[in-house]
Amino acid sequence: MTSALERLDLLADPVATSVRQLDDARIGATEIDPDLADTAAFCEKYGSPLELSANCVVVAGKRAGEVRYAACVVLATTRADVNGVVKRRLDVRKASFAPMDDAVELTSMEYGGITPFGLPADWPILIDPEVAKAPALVVGSGVRRSKLIAPGEALTNLPNAEVLEGLGR
């Protein structure tokens, strides 16, 4: 693993900008086979434990005609409580995973590579406490051909990051 600051070429543009701003040498980047970007395939091929991988999903909900987005970061061994914890946090009647095309367009990232780094500035980044305290996690890099490795603490240092109790189930 190389410092992500030295391999910005492996990251989607908004992710590279975010990594530069954080200036955290603990964030690493590694190139992977893009066909193995999905968490289960990646973990199986590269021998990475599922409990040390985190998934970032984009959630949308409506309130008074306004669509509200958030990113949820949970361990790969859990699922985000979208219709409980996330719905209440966004203060919407119903929350669901954002359509793939919307998530890709709004984040400027590839599907299967969406990461908490470099998300739109007005989105809350909801982080499960187990993610926040992990010593090292594999997360997306904004593109399918690489992964980031970062301590959970680095994710909590992102703008709009919130550790949300009960997010992962």
From TrEMBL:
It holds the Pfam family tRNA_edit. InterPro entries: YbaK/aa-tRNA-synt-asso_dom_sf, YbaK/aa-tRNA-synth-assoc-dom. Residues 34-156 form the YbaK/aminoacyl-tRNA synthetase-associated domain. One of its GO terms (molecular function) is aminoacyl-tRNA deacylase activity. It comes from the Bacteria. This is Cys-tRNA(Pro) deacylase, prolyl-tRNA editing enzyme YbaK/EbsC. It comes from Saccharopolyspora antimicrobica. The lineage of its organism: Bacteria, Bacillati, Actinomycetota, Actinomycetes, Pseudonocardiales.
